[in-house]
Amino acid sequence: MIIDCHGHYTTAPKALQAYRDAQLAALKDPSGGPRSKGTVAIADDEIRESLENAQLKLQRARGTDVTIFSPRASAMAHHIGDETTSLHWSQHCNDLIARVCALYPTNFVGVCQLPQSPGVPPARSIPELERCVTELGFIGCNLNPDPSGGHWTSPPLTDRWWYPLYEKMVELDVPAMVHVSSSCNPNFHATGAHYLNADTTAFMQFLTADLFEDFPTLRFVIPHGGGAVPYHWGRYRGLAQDLKRPPLGELIRDNVFFDTCVYHQPGIDLLTTVVPVDNILFGSEMVGAVRGIDPETGHYFDDTKRYIDALTSIADADRRKIFEDNARKVYPRIGACLKGAARVEDSRASEDSARDGARGDDSSRGARAFPASARSEDERATARLAEAPEARTRQPSDRR
Q1: Ranges assigned E (strand) in the chain
Q2: CA–CA separation, 220 vs 199, rounded Å?
Q3: Which residues pair with 89 in a beta bridge?
Q4: How many Cβ atoms are within 10 Å of 291's Cβ, its own excluded?
């Protein structure tokens, strides 16, 4: 099995953004009256359409199996509005991810957006984390170290300000991906600077503190290949030595992990050379920040499975760690999710088979087991995909 640890719902139906636009417009209401959570009206077929020609098509074309899926990172925008704004927005985004996972239980497993807000203690995000894990079946969260959107007004991730949230993460046995959102600081382009700055900053914070002595089982995934960390591994080894810190391999062993959202072969070669293989998880972030085709290779930049497949420096057992085993270790709740998903799919297939047998119709056997109401559309989508090889298509242009 190939588990992609880094996927965002960047192709969500337009009604979600319409809700957000209305929510933000209400913030300008001079009356300052009470704000309701409101509703987001999205049909199941709209969700299917948003995925079938995007993430699902690319999963099938590239040979990956399941994506750990969360709301669009740049749209978290914790710096906008206040705590109530963030809570309502996060709940709607997380509920939509839960619906995706229910419709495609063998393709997607949920990770939640936290309702963070500048200056608001992270402890206030605990109820939403707990709801998503215990009620929606999510297996982790995305944690923004800078809810201010590029001005870095929060304490470091190693500060005790964050400890109540960490205690709940440990209790629930879920990790966090360290992931900032959009930047409102004109010095920092969001995906080209702010994201990578945050990845690098988080690693240095972990290096200089004793957080994991207080929380030995706390786990973080630093995305985008760890920002600048692999390229400057020697610098960080030297800093750790000068600061009388543990060697890097020992420091990160059970607590800090990197994904493979690095969009060229030399970058993946470097990552797997300097970072222990046990601390690397496969990730692509598709459909995400970089969506074009690399003119040097003829393949999409974010088709990161190709880079792992092409590695000659690791054994097949290590490749399996990157593709599957490490994700199961970092996200231990995924095992139960996938077992449950398999049972759901088997049940759907049995129901469809019985229905087909009752009407003497074998035409749908072997098709993906959607509810009957969606079957005809799925068949049409499958036919469209068969007629449109990846090399002749472009990825959706939705914003990240």
Answers
A1: 3-9, 66-71, 108-110, 112-113, 141-143, 176-178, 220-222, 256-259, 280-281
A2: 11
A3: none
A4: 17
Of the ranges 80-84, 186-190, 198-202, 232-236, which one carries the lowest mean pLDDT score? 186-190
CA dist 52 and 294 (Å) reads: 23
ω into residue 290 within 30 of 0, thus cis? Answer: no
Q: Please indicate, yes or no, if residue 364 is contained in any of the structural domains.
A: no
pLDDT digits (tens, 9 = 90+) for 311-354: 999 999 999 999 999 999 999 999 999 887 777 777 766 776 66
- Boundaries of domain holding 44: 3-27+36-332
For the segment 139-166, the average pLDDT, to the nearest whole number, is 95
pLDDT in tens, 110-128: 999 999 999 999 999 999 9
Structural domain includes residue 386: no
285: closest CA among 252, 309, 262, 257? 262
Residue 46 annotated to the active site: no
Based on the structure, what is the number of domains in the chain? 1
Q: Is residue 342 part of a domain?
A: no
User: Residue 128, CB half-sphere, CA atoms under 13 Å: how many?
Assistant: 25
| 385 in a structural domain | no
Residue 152 phi/psi, 5-degree rounding, is: 55, 60
The CATH number of the domain holding residue 74 is 3.20.20.140
User: Which residue in the list 52, 128, 285, 324 is annotated as catalytic?
Assistant: 285
Q: Tokens representing 343?
A: 């049972």
Q: Which residues pair with 293 in a beta bridge?
A: 300
* Residue that the structure tokens 């706390």 belong to: 218
Output the CA angle 19-22-24, nearest 5 degrees: 110
**pTM for the predicted model, two decimal places:** 0.85
Distance (Å, whole) CA 55 – CA 62 = 10
